Amino acid sequence: MIRTLFILNPNAGKMQAKHNLFKLIDLFTKNKYEVTVFPTQDRLDATNIVKEKANEYDLIVCSGGDGTLNEVISGLMHHTNRPKLGYIPTGTTNDLATSLNLPKTCIKAAKKIIAGSSYYYDIGSLNDSYFTYIAAFGAFTKVSYTTSQKFKNALGRISYFLEGIKHLTEIKTYPIKIEYDHGVIEDDFVFGAVTNSTSIAGLFHLNSHDVILNDGLFEVLLIKSPKNAIELKNIIMGLLKQQYNDKYVTFFQASHLKITSDSNIPWIIDGENGGTQRDVTISNNHKGIEFIL
Question: Which residues form the DAGKc domain (predicted)?
Answer without folding.
Answer: 1-130
